[in-house]
Amino acid sequence: MFKNYIKIAWRNLIKRKVFTAINVLGLAVGFGSSILIYLFLSYHLSFDNFHHNSDRIYRMVTEEHRDDIEYDPSVPPAFAKTFKADYDYAEKVAKIVEYDGLVIDVEKKGVTNKFKKDIVFAEEDFFKIFNYPLINGSNKISLSAPNTAVLTKSMALNMFGKIDVVGKTFVLENDKTIEITGVLKDLPKTSFLQTEVFISFDNIKDFFGFAGSESWNGITTNLKCFALLKPNQDISTIETALLELPKKHRAKSKNKHVYKLQPLSIMHLDPVYGGLEPTLLWVFGIIGLFLIIIASINFINISTAQAFYRSKEIGVRKVLGSVKKHLFWQFLSETFVIGLFALLLGIGLAILFIPAFNDLFQIQLASIDLWDIRFIAFLSLVLVMVSFLSGSYPGLLLSRIVPVLALKGKLDHNDTGGATTRKVLVVAQFAISITLIAATLIISRQIDYAINTDLGFDKDFVVMVDIPTDMESIPLKGLKERLAQIPGVENVSACLSSPGGATSNWGTSVRYNNKAEQEEFSIEIKAGDQNYLKTFDIPLVAGRNFFENDSLTEVLVNERLGEKLGLESAEEMLGKKLQVSGDIDVTIVGVVQDFHDTDFTHEINPVFIGARNSWFSELAIKINHSNTALTLEQIGEQWTNAFSEYIYEYRFLDERVAEQYETEQRYLSLSKVFSALAILIGCLGLYGLILFYVGQRTKEIGIRKVLGSSVGNILTLFSMDFFKLILIAGVFATPIAWYLMEQWLQGYTYRTQIHWWVFALAIVSIMIITLITISYQTLKVAVTSPVKSLRTE
């Protein structure tokens, strides 16, 4: 029986090639898009689930309670030792420090090769908490002694050309000779760490003394602390016990700490502590569902539209003994055949676009992921659901046809599904497309607003170059003078980071004007020399620039500090004393205009700017826009002459600012792609309906032309039917899109506004696309001779 259904279904599909092609292509695009979204969601939901005992691994994090609450994915350096010694909750506790861009020298065949790599300084127990095995399958990783390291297999091959490198050495930052004690298997692509070089934690004091200390007086986000808890621990009990630690070690601080335990399973998807926003996954999951729904709507519309022409076939079948059940399964079989072809084509499309998808999102999907048992189950479920949902309604309608009416040709379109059902489904299609277009426009406006709005400093044509970590041996003053003499260079400043360097923010406690207690809020340190204001074009609003001395004595602050202190004018701060980090006493000599020291999701912070050489980690070089390539080359020559043992790299500041919104830009790109696909699928369905409507109304068009109607009148007649549906769809889509985007914009302190014209533009865009879709077929019939049109029926 089933074989017969399939055979008849195949014959019917071959008979109606155009409509079959439209259905297959529409469903294929929907399937292909949904497959990519499924792989994308699976990738992000599978992070760090490969570790043994992953349900007992936690990261220790901190809530910092000042005038508001800040969330830090770290704890003070002393926390790990105290938690391990004073409490009996964990089997293992370990710290790591992530350090960016250190230089590694490797000698191979008499030639020294240099690499600039991100390094993780790790305690040995870190590898007993996490499942990062050696290539021989053991977990006996030795990092207890200083100047030891383990590499990943890929890094070993990159550095030495082989993996048998235990006992070999490399030089770190032209100073420390490091011995390799093991080679790790390459870290899984879904690991929160993607570092290839791990060095003994004992070496961190050579690069970042605070992270290697036993201090309770601050937090650096570079340091992470992990614990493998003993079985059956109650997290709330542990967190309650940890409330005693700040009282004991930080009693005098206004920055009240609350230590929490963050499960490894949610680290990747916890935006509070820097993870990915899980709402984004839901959004794209819904978009994938929408694409399937739109393709299914196309199938239903075209099938019900064709039902009128298949009524005699149904009538004959019923006269010959077919019952409703047989007819119903016959049409489901047709749907299944279409769905199966579409699915196979969709898989091919997905495989074709996986490389581009990976490039866009910087992820590592592979076609082999398509053969995972869960993925096969997902595809099977989608195929069955789409076949049933798309085929059951037309099947039910056709199986209810009365044979006598069908054979006499007395059926109308209400008997075969009716125009009302099709209109409702088309409205749903248009509403989804309008929502996606409006959302894409609003996201694009917000990102454009964040990147192109005046940030309070000049980010254009500013080149940022790292300064090596060994500050004592750096001839910084001489280098700045030589760089300033390059014809294309306008200003040079040594600094801790750029004004908007969110990745290098340094918040600390502040005591104003010799008050007895610290302020409730923190202040951000922006270390920079006298040229800092000129280089970044930050205007002074009161006072003067500071003078550079051997010690830090004079500083600038921003207007925001005065607002937090409740002062009425910037001038009131001039000459006042500040104490920062508990022991640095300085005088305010100038006040600068507020600038965005972090991204637009956060408020502008109180900031002070002062010069201390030991804080400098970058050079900011303002260049002019003429002959940029030559200027950059000359900067590189001077930098390399000064630091011949290091690797020269540079970044433009505007690129760095844009990177703060890199995630949003990637998702915007995905929104654009899938919005375009939703429109494409919808247009395929519209084209199919137009073929049906034009074929149905060919005689009507001929009569209208005989009576004097122009081609424009006929095109307007057809277009208005769809424009009315678009306007109805707009009425439903506008409040939905507005609500969703308003919720998304709540995450930004500084945001664009949602204007009415965004929704109007989305509706007009759909109207134009619809007009283009229906014009060809309508005009084709409209310009045909009335005599030929009247003979058609």
TrEMBL record:
Record keywords, A-Z: Cell membrane, Membrane, Transmembrane, Transmembrane helix
GO MF entries: transmembrane transporter activity
Name of one Pfam family that matches: MacB_PCD
InterPro entries: ABC3_permease_C (IPR003838), MacB_PCD (IPR025857), Macrolide_Exporter_MacB (IPR050250)
Recorded GO CC terms: plasma membrane
Location relative to the cell: Cell membrane
Protein's UniProt keywords contain Transmembrane: yes
TM regions (residue ranges): 21-41, 280-302, 327-355, 375-403, 424-443, 673-694, 715-741, 753-774
Residues in MacB-like periplasmic core domain copies: 20-242, 431-597
PANTHER family: ABC-TYPE MACROLIDE FAMILY EXPORT SYSTEM PERMEASE COMPONENT 2, MEMBRANE COMPONENT OF TRANSPORTER-RELATED
Name under which the protein is recorded: FtsX-like permease family protein
Organism per entry: Flagellimonas hymeniacidonis
